[in-house]
Amino acid sequence: MAHQALNIGEYSVFLEETSSTNETLKTLYSAEPLPEGALVYTHYQTAGRGYLQNVWESEKGENLLASVLLKPQFLQAEEQIWLNVVVSLALRELAEIYSKMQATIKWPNDIYIQQNKVAGILIENTLQGSKIKHSIIGIGLNINQQHFKNEKAASLFHFAGVRFEPKEMRLALCAQLNHFYGLLRGKQYSLLWDLYHKHLMGKGQFAQFKKGSVIFEGLIMGIDKKGRLHLEVDDEVRCFVHKEIEFVQLINPSTNAHTGN
């Protein structure tokens, strides 16, 4: 049975300022039955979060800060990785189109251009039995901000040299999310998996990682359906979850950030 077409962002709520778009969307959804694709966006977050409680740095009105409600009840709880895949692909495509530079997906939840982070994702799933009941998808995309405390952060302005209209970027994001989430609802798993690995930063390259206080090198192989990163370390393939290791740098960042066609 075909899924009804979804128009992400058709129902939207704007707040000049909020603690966190994810928290705001959770509060709104607990108070009323919002439609799938509902969007909350803001000019400024007072308590914006990244993965593992990291703070998301953003100047007021300079970037795209939004959260989307999805209801992927066709996914089992152990299939949560597919949400990360489609949101990463949508955000990567948007960054590449507007920057006119190659954009890649840095495992597990960031979008990079060259060696700079331009976007991040925070996905919070609510389970019901063995299925995903609903998901809150938090997205931060650096659009026009010119100065960051984090030396690895950059905006699309940094690469394109022009300022972007936030509304245009928001609508373009919704269009990309509609496209890639539509592929997922249409069970285009092989296509999505291949695209993700095509754009995975460092795939087929050696990189430095940190585990505890130890720095080690590994060849980036890809991810598995549990979202774990597979590395070849000392001629042995090992897999790691998000919290186990921290990416440090590619061994040879002057080459292309990913391989494959």
Task: Explain what this protein looks like in three dimensions.
The chain is of the alpha+beta class. The chain has 2 domains: 12-198, 2-Layer Sandwich (BirA Bifunctional Protein, domain 2), CATH 3.30.930.10; 206-250, SH3 type barrels. 25% of the residues lie in helices and 30% in strands. It contains 5 helices and 12 strands. It has helices at 21-31, 81-99, 156-160, 166-185, 189-198; strands at residues 12-15, 39-42, 64-70, 103-106, 110-113, 116-128, 131-141, 206-211, 214-223, 229-233, 236-240, 246-250. The protein has a 7-stranded mixed sheet with strand order 1-2-3-7-6-5-4, sandwiched between helices. Strands 11-10-9-8-12 form a 5-stranded antiparallel sheet, with no helix packed on it. A hairpin with a 3-residue loop joins strand 4 and strand 5. Mean pLDDT is 92; it is low at 255-261.
Structure keywords:
12 strands; 30% strand; alpha+beta; disordered C terminus; BirA Bifunctional Protein, domain 2; 7-stranded mixed sheet; single chain; 2 domains; SH3 type barrels; 25% helix
Brief overview, please?
The chain is an alpha+beta fold and 261 residues long. It is built from five helices and twelve strands.
Kindly name the structural category. Answer: alpha+beta
What is the total domain count?
2
CATH C-level class of the largest domain is Alpha Beta
Rough outline? globular
CATH-assigned fold name of the largest domain: BirA Bifunctional Protein, domain 2
Terminal Cα span = 33 Å
CATH architecture call of the largest domain: 2-Layer Sandwich
* Relative helix content: 10-25%
Q: Uncertain regions: pLDDT < 50 for 5+ in a row?
A: 255-261
| Total beta strands | 12
Helix segment count? Answer: 5
- β-strand percent reads 25-35%
Compute the gyration radius: what is it?
18 Å
SSE ordering: EHEEHEEEEHHHEEEEE
Biggest sheet strand order reads: 1-2-3-7-6-5-4
CATH superfamily of the largest domain: Bira Bifunctional Protein, Domain 2
The description of the largest β-sheet is: 7 strands, mixed
What's the mean pLDDT score?
Answer: 92
